[in-house]
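ok new one. same drill as before - structure tokens go in, u give me an amino acid for every spot. 237 of them this time. try not to just spam alanines like last time pls lmao
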């Protein structure tokens, strides 16, 4: 075997070893847990949409507020859970995070994205909306979306948790956006659970944010091939 062949064989062997080694994300390193509500949850208020016939006609059943949504096992929905102290450079994904104005409310109610990642705002309703973002760190925005305008995009330049969004045309419409410099965040589902995948090994502070119940912090130690569990319990007012 000549020198070139030896070099090629060695390079292929190194490549094979590299491909066989799991990355941090593929190793399954993650933080998971559950956010619960202790006590009797407040009764969800019915949202009256009669001021706009298009909104009212979009629903066959009553629409309830999303301020405090509690599911099975006292799980608290719509809690933004994120890692506060991650070091490193994490380029934003090119794919947008989508929030939809559908039935005259925002879907989802709480979302997260990275700095520089596109936020895509849809209008699935046949009526006028305006999207009014009220950040304290980033530049504010406020633009109309008539029924014939179906999509707009926006980007945030700085981290900020959280950014409130509302519609000045329909005062019951509101949503919240977490803007982070990294991808390590999640929003709790109907049962209050969350999962944050792909964390580099280390010790972290995890924060859980709720729009009316405030914030809580927990600690997590993540191994390269392990799972840390952090649970949070908010108390009903």
């Amino acid at each position: 075997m000549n020198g070139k062949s030896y070099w090629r064989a060695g390079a292929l062997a190194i490549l094979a070893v590299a491909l066989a080694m799991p990355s941090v994300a593929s190793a399954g390193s993650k933080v998971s847990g559950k956010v619960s509500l202790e006590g009797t949850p407040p009764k969800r208020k019915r949202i009256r949409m009669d001021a706009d016939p298009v909104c009212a006609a979009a629903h066959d059943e009553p629409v309830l507020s999303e301020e405090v949504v509690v599911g099975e096992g006292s799980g608290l929905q719509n809690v933004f859970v994120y890692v506060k102290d991650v070091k490193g450079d994490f380029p934003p994904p090119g794919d947008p995070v989508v929030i939809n104005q559908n039935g005259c409310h925002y879907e989802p109610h709480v979302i997260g994205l990275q700095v520089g990642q596109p936020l895509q705002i849809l209008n699935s309703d046949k009526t006028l909306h305006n999207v009014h973002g009220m950040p304290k760190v980033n530049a504010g925005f406020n633009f109309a979306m008539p029924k014939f305008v179906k999509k707009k995009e926006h980007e945030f330049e700085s981290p900020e948790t959280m950014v409130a969004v509302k519609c000045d045309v329909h005062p019951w419409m509101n949503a919240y956006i977490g803007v982070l410099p990294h991808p390590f965040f999640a929003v709790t589902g109907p049962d209050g659970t969350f999962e944050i995948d792909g964390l580099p090994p280390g010790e972290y502070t995890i924060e859980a944010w709720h729009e009316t119940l405030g914030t809580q912090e927990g600690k997590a130690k993540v191994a390269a091939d392990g799972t840390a569990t952090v649970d949070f319990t908010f108390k009903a007012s």
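The chain has one domain: 27-235. and btw The longest strand covers residues 30-38.
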